[in-house]
Amino acid sequence: MDIESWRKKIDAIDLQIVALLSDRAVAAQAIGKLKQATDLPVYEPNRERVIFEKVRAANKGPLPDIELVHIYERIIDVMRALQSDELASQRSASAKGKDARTGETGKQS
Ligand SMILES: C=C(O[C@@H]1C=C(C(=O)O)C=C[C@H]1O)C(=O)O
């Protein structure tokens, strides 16, 4: 294959990666909401260790394990921030009596 063909392949793969990362973010957000309801912490280091192990075990190359784990560390950082933002916005909305998603007060006018 020539460079253009490989680049088209990368573009198609990137679309899949973005869709999968979005799905992962939706799952992390859902977990964040459940954590808020049960007062569990956002950061769960044991769970993260399990994920890094699974990623290493699934790796067939050519990326070295350490690089793949670095990518995952970054992904998980972002997922944690998403959960924290979600929690922060829910807390501030509930303090103001507003719906966290829509910002509506729920009062009839
Ligand atoms: C999604 C969770 O919250 C955090 C984010 C994780 C992730 O993105 O995989 C894993 C553990 C937690 O630090 C979870 O607890 O499962």
Automatic annotation (TrEMBL):
Residues 1-87 form the Chorismate mutase domain. Keywords: Isomerase. One of its GO terms (molecular function) is chorismate mutase activity. Residues 96-109 have a biased composition (Basic and acidic residues). One of its GO terms (cellular component) is cytoplasm. One of its GO terms (biological process) is salicylic acid biosynthetic process. Its EC number is 5.4.99.5. This is chorismate mutase. The gene is pheA.
